[in-house]
Amino acid sequence: MNFSLTDWIKKNVLAVQEYALLAVRSLRNLFTGPRYLGDTLQQADIIGVGSLPIVVLTGFFLGAVLALQSANSLARFGGLSFTGQLVSLSMVREIGPVLTGLMVAGRSATGMASELGSMVVTEQIDAMRALGTDPSKKLVTPRVVSTVIMLVMLTVISDLFSMAGGATVAVFMLRLDGNQYWSTAWQSLGLGDIVMGLLKPFVFGFIISTIGCYYGMSAKGGTQGVGRATTQAMVSASVVLVVTDLFITQLLLTFFPFK
Amino acid sequence: MNSAPQSPQPVIVFDDVSIAFDDKVVLKNLSFTLYHGQTKVLFGVAGTGKTLILKLAMGLLKPDSGRITVLGEDVTAMRERDLFALRRKIGMVFQESALFDSLNVEDNVGFRLLEEHVAAAEMSERVREALRFVELEHTVKLAPSELSGGMRRRVAIARAIIANPALLLYDSPTAGLDPVTSTTIIELLVKQRDAYQVSALMVTHRLQDAFVMATHAYDAAQGKMVLVPRERNWDSRTSFLVLRDGEKIFEGSAEEIANSEDAYIREYLTP
């Protein structure tokens, strides 16, 4: 098989264009009817409630590990009492949004790609269009809206449980005072940290859902194509999420620099 | 009953339509007209673009060149958002039924009514009426996965006819089904044609199904289709269109195709 650089470039430029159109359309649908509140709530349940166990578990244990690891370094400088501050700042500003985003990408972006991909290869999407319903409004926008809202909520829950995980280690293993842990954890958080911690999942939710829907809606080639779309959705969503994180962090640091 | 209207209105007009995929020309300069109340049966071996014609008529795909007019509207020039309104006047039965996995039979059949926010009681009544037409009223709460292939095809027909469309597009409605189920489905199509005078475009590989449609009429008194003797003229509203390598090689009535001298068509007609 001959490889053509021109064809490869054309194919990828077209893919970016198709993705951009889907993403823009998913937002534009918010301002034009019909709106599918029932489908949005159903997706919110699947994405939000369904992801809750893994988000709670990973958040709790990552917070615990972070406390354990940082305590070792902080103890060398006599700063063991700052464990709560370190855990809360790290989790709220960075790890919480990224970790929750990756968990939801693994669970929901793949779910969207496989579900929509199956619908494409079994002509259900064509059938929906033939029945006079816009799949972009009925299937894509409800998934985008519910992922964005749910990811913000899941991130807050993850942050909370990670601090609880850190507190468990701090109190029961490091023998720190629980009240001191929570007060330093709470007082160290400023407006910039909260904004950063809530803005990131907002953007990540949009990225995860639009990438999941894009790969699903562009699936080709039967069940094998659906499998391929699912894998690509997971990989692309994770990579784009982490890359975007760098740019958002840099951007937000200009508005909310470290004190 | 078999006489065509004096000045029939065109329902579908394909005017010099061509389309290619990856440099492979699938349809080449195709032109034909389907008039109101007519059924046109599309024949051809696999890969000649029969399903593509239905998707083009539905506006699901755009041709590379040529013009397609459906119910008086130029679908080749319409935007996707404008096409949704037109598609609500058309019913389509897909080859693999394309029922929504996540919905039960009732919601599949009533999908269009749900989208139009029809009251629950009215929707339920109309869904049952459509399912009664295909004799599957008892499946209303079943999931598509619980149905046989023939039942799924009949549910798809019920979904296509529920909104009383002006035009029906059938994509191989009897493909892969046993002869008994195939006859049941063809009888439903004849019933739809004769009882409601709906125009239709049907893709099929099965010549015998098309001939059954042309040689039978629905008898409302007996509640089944009956054979129309050849001397009383076969249904003039059912015409045949044969494709070969993306080009039209024949268009005419059942009588004309049966008497065709074309070697390819003779080969096609001979089992």
Using the alpha-carbon principal axes, give the shape of chain B: globular
CATH architecture of the largest domain in chain B: 3-Layer(aba) Sandwich
- What's the helical proportion of residues of chain B? 25-40%
User: Unreliable segments of chain A (pLDDT under 50, ≥5 consecutive)?
Assistant: none
Oligomeric form: heterodimer
How is the main sheet of chain B built?
A: 6 strands, mixed
Rg of chain B, alpha carbons: 18 Å
> How many beta-strand segments of chain B?
12
Q: What percentage of the residues of chain B does DSSP assign to strands (E)? A: 25-35%
Number of helices of chain B: 10
Kindly report the average pLDDT value of chain A: 93
Class by alpha and beta content of chain B: alpha/beta
Terminal-residue CA separation of chain A: 57 Å
What is the CATH superfamily of the largest domain in chain B?
P-loop containing nucleotide triphosphate hydrolases
Greatest interface: A-B, 15 and 22 residues
Which fold name is given in CATH as the topology of the largest domain in chain B? Rossmann fold
Total helical segments of chain A = 8
Strand content of chain A: under 5%
Textual characterization of the structure:
The complex is a heterodimer of chains A (259) and B (271). Chain A has 259 residues and is an all-alpha fold. Chain A is built from 8 helices and no strands. Chain A starts with a helix and ends with a helix. Chain B folds into 2 domains: 10-89 and 167-269, Rossmann fold (3-Layer(aba) Sandwich); 100-164, no CATH class. Chain B is 34% helix and 27% strand. A 6-stranded mixed β-sheet of chain B has the order 6-7-8-3-11-12, with helices on both faces. A 4-stranded antiparallel β-sheet of chain B has the order 2-1-4-5, with helices on one face. Chain B has a two-stranded antiparallel ribbon with strand order 9-10. In chain B, helix 5 (120-133) crosses helix 6. Chain B is globular, with a radius of gyration of 18 Å. At the A-B interface, helix 4 of A face helix 2 and helix 4 of B.
